[in-house]
Amino acid sequence: MIQHKKIFSIFLSILILSGSISLASFSNVEAQTSYLYVSASNPLSQNRVAGPQVIEVVVRDQNISDTGKGLGEPDVTINGKDLRMTQATDGNWYGYFSDRRQAQIADSTVGLTGKGLDFGTFCSRNTSVLGVSVSDTEGIAIPVSGSGIGGENGINPPNQITQDCSLSSPYTKNSMNVVRQAKAMNPGNSIVKLGQIGLTSQDLWPFIQLYDFSKGGNIEIQYNRGGGPQKTTLTFDTSEKLVKHELDRSTYPRSSDVNLKITDLTLNIDPTDEDSWSFGTSSSPSTYYLLYEESGKVDSDGTSGAVDLVPYLSSMMFKDNGILKINPSTQGQANVITIRDNDNSATNGDGEIDISLISTSAGSIGAGKQPVTITETSPNSGIFTTYDPNNDSVLITTQNAQRGTSATIEYNKKPVTLLIGFGKGVISLDETLKGTEWNSGEEMPVILIDSDSNKNNLEKEDLDLFNPFYKAIPALSTGDPFTLGESGVGDTTKIKSSFLSGFTLTPVSNKFTLSSSTLGTTTTTSVEKFSDRARIDPTTTTNANALVIDLKTPIKELYGSINNPFDPAKKFKGLNMFNYDIRSLNNTIQNVDVYLLVNELSSDILDSSGNPVNNLSAIKIVSDTRLQNLINLNSTQQVSNPQTLHSNLFSQSYTGNEPIGLMFTFTPIQNIGMETRPIVADFFSYGILNDGLTKQQRIANQIVRVEMEELTKDSGKFRGSLEYIMLNQLNIFNPATYEKINPIDDEPIFLVIDELKGNDAPRINFNDLGSDGVLTAISDQQDVLSHMGIVILSIKSFKPGDTVGVTLLDKDLNVDSDLVDIYTVVDPSKFPNDVASDTVGLPNLGMMKNEPFGQLLEITFDDERWLKSTVPSNGKSCSAISGSDGLASTGFTLVETGRKTGEFVGSFKIPSQYCSRNDGGIVKSTTGVDIGARYYDFRGTSSQAAVTSASATVGATSGLVKLDRSSYPVPVGSISDFFDTGKSSSTRPDGHSIFPFHLTAITKNGDTKAIDSGEELGPQDTILYVQIHDADYNLSPNGEDTISQNIVGSNGPVKVLVTRGTSSLLLATAGGEEAKQGVITTGKNTKSGITRELGPILETAPSSGIFQFKLPLRYSDGPSSTKCPPTTTFTKLDNTKTGVLSRFDASPSTGNYCILKGDVITVEYSDQTDASGSPRTVTGSAAFDLRIGSLQSDKSSYIIGRDVILTLIDPDLNFDSKKAETHSLDVLEWDSDDARVTMGNLGGAITKNGKIFDSQPFGLRETGDSTGIFQTILKIPSEINNKPVDRDETIEITYTDWGTSGSDFVGKTDQKVELKFYTSNLQSLITLDKKVYSWTEKVYITIVAPDHNFDEYKIDPIGQNEKNEIKISTRSNKLSQYKLVETGTDTGIFTGEVILTGFKHDADGNPRTGDIDGIDTMPRTEPKSKGGPTNGFLESKHDDGLTVSFKFNDRETTTSSALIRWNIGAVEWIQGVTSSNGIGVIRVIDPDMNLNPETVNTFTIDVWSDSDLGGIDLTVIETGPATGIFEGQVILTSKDQSSGNKLRVSDGDTITAKYEDHTLPKPYSTADELKISATAYVGPIIPPLERIPISNPRTVDSFGNVLNDVYVDQQVQITANLLNKNIANQPFTYLVQINNSTNSVESLSWITGTLLEGQSFSPSVSWIPDSSGKYTATIFVWQTLSNPVALSPPIKLDMMVIEN
To answer: Region entry Disordered: which residue ranges (predicted)?
Structure first.
């Protein structure tokens, strides 16, 4: 089609402008599967699926996760076919699928319903049993079976599933065994269907959907979610190349776990549960699925459901995998591997039985088949192991496997070698401590490095004594303990043992006789070297209730290890203990009795058949409920009669040659088994023989075993520790000491009674199986040394009452490394006759070598023990002493400074007196004597007993007097002291000691011509604080002491005097035994019975030695003078008298009594004992003074309503130095333009009694104790005297000081102190966030108004009253008294917001949106008054103005304005171009469509493509509240039809987005609209200007001949060559514009068409010039006129037209 039209040039310009566009782009990146989970998606398995695996598909999408609402089913497909999804109770959606053929083959192997690979019942694709359609599948498998169900079971070879199913009784539930732990289905409710999709029954869940897959083909699972599909691609193929199996180590020691791991995804059948596979691993292999559940519980073992799957493996896509073989002896020698039962299986294997004898418990895999079970590590992992949750493997190397031999484990026809090898062990004590000292109570780490003891690489192991797989346990022994190895170790001939299943014990004379025994089984018994642990191997399995051990040794060997503490002739002080551990027998045993068997008639305990011989004597050692214990044979807590027991053990009828054995009886054990049972049994002995002075007389026979712990798994490095307790005189006979022994533990504790070093040093031994296969002893040792104790006193000189610190250093006293050791004093009130009374020690331990055995440390005065005065010693005692009397009375203890430090500290206060028995039993002062501490060391250097001591002297200190300050203010009297009427005679003090409030208060309140009571600062007494420093009175270590000693009569040692020249008054004495009434006396001397006594002086704090009292000083308490004012009424000290004699002992000789400036206060202290021991008097003094005050403020200018910090500095008002004082604000006067008034309560109505100042505190508060600086914080009131305080107003504060520096006393003269400051006057500023707003925008308003920041601690508002009104208005509407609030405390910046609501208008041009009339706005103005700061709405027009005004003071208002305008919108594509299955994003920018600035707004635009010109309505969504930017996503598809936000396109299409703008600015009207569009190209990117290049422009005639000349009125053709370089067909418009010499448009013509890919074309348009001249033709190539995208740069052709 050719069009020709002559137009004005402006038309083309508008066309070009209105058609301007921006090029778009798309993304074709495949969506991530954040919402889609597929169980087989695993990069390690290359997303491969094989055989009858069930695949779980889960959709986790919060948009459809609500289980309480009816929701649509997610659209999930398998290779484009629907997968039905069911919602579970967790809100997620689940579906299960499998390959149909493989499922049928697997199900065909089932021998019993619900066992093996049972898929349940198969139903055809058209079945309605579920209540939902599954027609896209090849059938389903449901978890029910029975005659009422119908359907079909699996077959091999498989066929299409044709049978329908119905849910009719009878049927069996849960018959499916390949999905065992599916999530519970959503049960539904009144509005929600079962599973959300409406399944017919809970019994049908889970169901498996079946599809046909091709081997090697892909399985594409896709979730078609709005916003873009998500998919996962799997491959259906065999996986033998991904299979691997591996062992956990390269070589294995004996009895070690063999941890086999098999990675084979084909074995992962059930994605919801751990799968279990069992194999017969012999040369004739077998394979079973789920003989056991993952917990080890029997599932199909022993039932017809146990089906060997080997014949079916190849048809289920197994290759060589699925078969496990084990050759237990590759070299044909002894087997190196066997099988042990664990928690994942059930066999008769115990780790010792030969592998050929092992079968499953129910027999599905019989003996000789070598049953091995592997279990998946977690659901869906595809990783299987031989070990259970306890890390116990079913495979274990044998106890006697030979080094260099091996076994072979084959899976997937790939063998791996299991090699036996040993490592060399090393045992050592901690190298950081080795060679240094090992002290009592310290843990000595023990390190064993032995790869052979690392039995399981997956576990941190313990060398448990009861574990038979460890054939060596580290052990340490001292002395000669009696053990099971007494007759020898190593081979099986040294001792014998048998288990009995019955016996009779007959009581005979405190013993028993063993008879009528029934042999259960004999054993093979050996004893390990060093640990003396017996390994008992039953030869058969039997019931048992007793174990008898023939020790093959006589009883005299036992006597070599233990002693009889109950036989005085033996002179043994100590105890014996029995240690045993039989935990290996059975953990169900509840009672254990242990007997020593003695054969008094023959040489054996057991006969040749293993039975006990007849009539054995049985001595009961212990009855217990534990399988491991250490029994104190001397304790009645553990043995019924220790003396009888020892009498039996040491029977005089024994010659010493009688054979002995042990018998353990216990709760019957059913079927004891043939596993090795390691046990120990030992006799220990501790104590001293005779005095214990020689090494041979100190007994500690014991053995400890270290159950070491591996430091980290698979390290072969084990750690334990050893700790010893050094016995001393206090703990050796204390039963609690022996309770700390821990002979079998990872941190055993033993006792040491003597220094052990060199060959005698404690040695840890271990019998190591070396790398050469030979047992070799390895060991390490460490010396144990005894220490000489040292006692230290804290200083060399003390005084009575001082605290004495005692430090004792002796590491032998650290007997418990886990606790802080404490030693206490023997209390003489409880043990008055004990030889260790009042010493640190223990009572009732008697004497040793004429010294108390229980004595550890004593305190002495003059070398005699400090003992309670009333306790006789050497026949002497004293009368009771008050206070501390003896060491016990002080609460003294020796406390260790920390765990295992061996340093002990204690303290006590030196008493003033003690009882000296050396001087005949008299009470003596401690002053001048020596104090000592004496320590009795039980084991000093080289274990020799020793005594160490320390001493110091006791002296006295000199006293000192301190006053609380160097000068004191003169006290102030009151009206009542001078006037009986309660008021003065004038408004001034008139020479009286009075400090009146400010004159304004006096003349405006009460009697305006007099000072009324209450209009004054007084009375104010000056408080005197006196401290006496004298440590001699500091006697109590914890309490507060006193000075309470009468010096003159009943008066104490302290005097308080006021002196003026030669005149003095004695105000009082202090420090006497009790307070006494008296008066002030003239002169300096104390007048007994007349001078008042203040009583005892208290110590300021415990142990301070500082004693303090206070005394109030009245203005009248000074020497008499004619300068003093006359006092009418005195404050009485003697109520029996009146007038001056009620306070003083005499009338003044002249004038009156009073304190004047310059008087001196003096305190005298009579120290009865100074540092030299002599009496001495010390003094302290200070003068009375008067000073001028001053006023200060923190600023010179203040905002009205803000705080003023007002400071009065006047030391004369600091009457009490120990507290912060407060004085009335009425001492200050406020003077402003409208008021002159005092600032306190007396301000009256003018100040509302001072409340308008809001002072904090209400008064002048001293800033701290004794500062003399008084402050208050007050507010500048906005009005006073009912009149406003103006800005820039002067305020004057006045203080009248009545205690001037020139006065003799307060009230005599005065001086005014003044302070001035001003109120501020700052301007305000309004700021709007924009200069131009759209019609429905939010307006943010900021006002800077510092003068309205009235309270710096609060957030202030402005604008809500007429005085500071804020108005917000458009041209037709307004909000008045609108409140703004401060942005924070003390900012002076106020903010608020208003939302413009527009006017009634259809903003999107769509009558279906908005209200019933299609109106999209809600214009309103509210609240019209007193709104804010965020709730204002203001109606506005599309061409309007906005004004904000603020009246910031009475005379001034500030304003700010902005425009309100509509805008022309813009459209653009913002995402790059790619294929036809990509995604595009369109953006519309139009602030006018932000119709509600507090929400995200939306509207629709038109989007279409060349393939679908109808297109879609796309919703664009605002990118955020109030942005005015809207975006929408278009999903492009070349397959589907357009719907929603999905648009059908083809490569090469142009897609167009069009927005109709109905909110246009002037000159448009509100009825106008403007269509704005943008286009994008679909396909590989060819820049638009390169798609159809223009070349060779020319003029031709109608036959195509080129014209060199053009004539007037001649028809010519304007042509050029075009070439389509785009990769697709390209629509185009060929447009020619001809301009004359004046650049006016003469002609505009165009032609439209479509060029095929690669096509060339020479279009032309005709033109007839009507006049001669120069012309220029401009040639354009656009996409279309409506979408003028330039496809080539324009090209020009100049032409000359001539007359014909």
So the answer is: 1406-1434
User: Please, what sign has the CA dihedral across residues 1585, 1589, 1591, 1593?
Assistant: negative
Give the Cβ contact number of residue 229 at 10 Å.
17
Query: What are the tokens at 549?
Result: 């051990």
| Token output for 811 | 């590491």
Report residue 800 as tokens. Answer: 């009575």
Distance CA 1263, CA 1313 (A): 20
d(CA 1414, CA 1408): 6
Average pLDDT, the chain: 91
> How many other C-beta atoms are found inside a 10 Å radius of the C-beta of residue 1584?
18
CATH dotted code for 1325-1461? 2.60.40.1930
547 and 585 Cβ atoms separated by less than 8 Å: yes
What is the C-alpha separation between 318 and 264, in angstroms, rounded? 10
* Integer CA distances (angstroms), 721 to 436, 441, 862, 1204, in order: 16, 12, 47, 72
Across 1494-1515, b (16+ Cβ under 10 Å) vs e yields eeebebbbbbbbbbbeebbebe
Beta carbons within 10 angstroms of residue 58's beta carbon = 20
Task: Say how far apart CA 1153 and CA 1219 lie, in whole Å.
Answer: 28
For residues 1076 and 1093, give the distance between their C-alpha atoms in angstroms, rounded to a whole number: 5
Task: Please report, as a single letter, which amino acid is at residue 498.
Answer: S
Q: Is the pLDDT of residue 1404 over 70?
A: yes
CATH fold for domain 1186-1319:
Immunoglobulin-like (2.60.40)
Residue 560 CA, chain-centre distance (Å), reads 59
What is the structure's pLDDT at 1035? 74
The identity of residue 380, as a single letter, is N
Distance CA 1398, CA 1375 (A): 15
- Whether this prediction's pTM lies above 0.90 is answered by no
Residue 1147 predicted with pLDDT over 80: yes
- Nearest-angstrom CA–CA distance, 1530 and 1619: 32
Alpha-carbon gap, residue 1023 to 968, rounded angstroms: 9
Strand partners, 475: 705, 765
Tell me what pLDDT residue 1069 has. Answer: 97
Q: Which of 533-542, 712-721, 1343-1352, 1467-1476 has the lowest mean pLDDT?
A: 1467-1476
pLDDT at 3: 38
Burial of 762 (0-12, 13-18, 19+ CB in 10 A): buried
Number of H-type helices and E-type strands within the chain = 7, 115
Q: Are 892 and 908 in contact (CB under 8 A)?
A: yes
Burial bucket for residue 566 (CB in 10 Å: 0-12, 13-18, 19+): middle
Question: Would you put residue 1254 in left (φ > 0), alpha (ψ -120 to 50) or beta?
Answer: left
pLDDT on residue 1173 = 64
Q: How far is residue 929's CA from residue 538's CA, in Å, rounded to a whole number?
A: 78
Query: Scanning the structure block, which residue is given the tokens 């027609």?
Result: 135
Distance CA 64, CA 1148 (A): 105
DSSP H/E element including 13: helix 9-18
Q: Which residues, including other chains, have CB under 8 Å from residue 543's CB and lie 6 or more apart?
A: 501, 520, 668, 669, 670, 671, 672
For the 1466-1577 domain, the top CATH level (class) is mainly beta
> Could you write out the DSSP letters of every residue in 1382-1438?
ESSTT--EEEEEEEE---S--TTS-TTSSSTT--------B-SBS--SS-EEE---S
SS (H, E, C) 280-329: ECCCCCEEEECCECCCCCECCCCCCCCCCCHHHCHHHCCCCCCCEEEECC
Determine the straight-line distance between the first and last CA of the chain, rounded to whole angstroms. Answer: 31
The CATH architecture that domain 2-19+1584-1698 belongs to is Sandwich (2.60)
d(CA 2, CA 1615): 13
